[in-house]
Amino acid sequence: MTDLRNAEDLIAEAAAAPIDGWGFDWLAGRATEERPPWAYARLVADRMARATAALDVDTGGGEVLAEVPHPPKLLAATEGWPPNVEVARRTLRRVGATVVAVDPDGPLPFRDASFDLVVSRHPVRTDWAQTARVLRPGGTFLSQQIGAGTMRELSEAILGPLPPPAHRHPEHAAAAAEDAGLRVVDLRRATLRATFSDIGAVVWFLRKVIWTVPGFTVDRYRGQLLALHERITAEGPFTAHAQRFLIEATRP
């Protein structure tokens, strides 16, 4: 149901709301997104229970890792966005994880063959050579990633028509993993329905998920936001589709 407050109030509220961490609780009751069928958190928990040394790359605020019921003895996480580092350190104390601040474009700051499990949910990018380097022989990399054209309907509502997506195709990720010396053992895809019930939810999402509209600011796109508000008011919740894929690879 569309919020009856006016567009400027909704936009101002969302523009002032915090976006630290990688949780989406602020959107409760205002936006929804289907979950992938493979239950990534459950897969991670299963792999962690059998690992001796594990790494979570791009942990965000540590939300997924913090829910692991049986963490391995050695557990590390990396995060490249400074506001998230302290959030992750607080969140991950309960599972005994060490959080390392990293340069997103730099190498992983760990020795060769340090981990028998590396996981990553929605990484900004995957450095396949570095992933292979830090994995032990027989080790596993498990990742849920953003697929090509994710939330395209929302991107085009703000930016206008876009060319076909050139990046984040599952097949490209699998080829890159194989080129780095890994063996892909699982590759799955899912298209997930997402809805936004008011323009505030759209603004908050675009501030947080920055690749949806690169360089997004309220002032830059106010006209498009007001037009989308009118559309939601007239037609009901705005619908887009998220693309996700799961990839699992092992180091021979």
Automatic annotation (TrEMBL):
<feature type="domain" description="Methyltransferase type 11">
    <location>
        <begin position="55"/>
        <end position="142"/>
    </location>
</feature>
<dbReference type="Pfam" id="PF08241">
    <property type="entry name" value="Methyltransf_11"/>
</dbReference>
<dbReference type="GO" id="GO:0008757">
    <property type="term" value="F:S-adenosylmethionine-dependent methyltransferase activity"/>
</dbReference>
<protein>
    <submittedName>
        <fullName>SAM-dependent methyltransferase</fullName>
    </submittedName>
</protein>
<dbReference type="InterPro" id="IPR052939">
    <property type="entry name" value="23S_rRNA_MeTrnsfrase_RlmA"/>
</dbReference>
<keyword id="KW-0489">Methyltransferase</keyword>
<dbReference type="GO" id="GO:0032259">
    <property type="term" value="P:methylation"/>
</dbReference>
<dbReference type="InterPro" id="IPR013216">
    <property type="entry name" value="Methyltransf_11"/>
</dbReference>
<dbReference type="InterPro" id="IPR029063">
    <property type="entry name" value="SAM-dependent_MTases_sf"/>
</dbReference>
<keyword id="KW-0808">Transferase</keyword>
